[in-house]
Design brief:
mainly alpha, Tetracycline Repressor, domain 2, 2 domains, globular, Homeodomain-like_sf, transcription cis-regulatory region binding, transcription regulation
Length: 233
């Protein structure tokens, strides 16, 4: 099998597994069913993915790639906080539209998160939080802000997926969104002289984007670390 042929077969298997996952959930993705759906012999599947876990990791990466396409399509506006809201709403919509994918992507710590698309999705969120910090509107460090948004959003979607569709309260997702935004941002208010954490977060974000030439790399990293600790104090 040539490299090009192997890649085409791999893609066919991933797409077949993705369709089975969407239709019947994780239990429907057996190596036998995927091989049959893709018209491929089982030994070929094992040669390309190692085992079922390897296949599921590839399927989760495929899901992250689909999600990332939608995320990129949002673009950026002049208001990073509003961009965070739009990104949150997209995340919730994706999870409820593709629940089986979401459970695999975010419910299984081994599947997909380490893929290039999974890491890029995380970087997109961090970039939005970084922009909020650069605008002087972040109360915590970029890392903590991104982690809070990610953890809260994931918990909200998993909770909604586990709730019967006719019993879901979509206001719950909006309320959680506004709660986490209010907890990490200044709410658009001007910073006071004593608002040290927000100022520290903004300066740390600025230094990450535009390092100071007078500082060595080690000094720069140390200063940013101190500023992050002040922001999270």
């Amino acid at each position: 099998m040539t490299e090009k042929s192997a890649e085409a077969t791999r893609d066919r298997l991933v797409r077949a597994a993705a369709e089975l996952l969407a239709e019947g959930g994780r239990d429907a993705v057996s190596t036998r069913a995927v091989s049959a759906a893709a018209g491929v012999q089982a030994p070929t599947l094992y040669r390309l993915f190692g085992d079922k876990d390897g296949l599921l990791e590839a399927v989760a990466a495929h899901g992250f790639a689909e999600y990332l396409t939608d995320k990129v399509a949002l673009g950026e506006s002049a208001d990073p906080v509003e961009d965070l809201r739009r990104g949150w709403d997209l995340h919730v919509q994706f999870g409820l539209t593709h629940p089986a994918f979401y459970l695999l992507m975010y419910g299984d710590p081994k599947a997909g998160a380490s893929s290039a698309a999974g890491k890029e999705a995380e970087n997109k969120l961090r970039r939005i939080v970084q922009r909020i910090a650069e605008a002087g509107q972040l109360r915590v460090s970029v890392s903590r802000g991104a982690e809070l948004v990610h953890a809260t959003g994931k918990g909200v979607v998993l909770t909604l997926i586990g709730t019967p569709e006719d019993e879901r309260d979509m206001e719950f997702a909006a309320a959680a969104r506004e709660h986490v935004i209010s907890s990490i941002t200044t709410g658009g208010q001007a910073l006071g002289d004593t608002d040290v954490p927000a100022r520290a977060a903004g300066l740390a974000a600025a230094l990450r984007s535009d390092p100071v030439a007078a500082l060595s790399g080690t000094e720069q990293a140390l200063l940013v670390e101190w500023l992050d600790r002040i922001a999270d104090a």
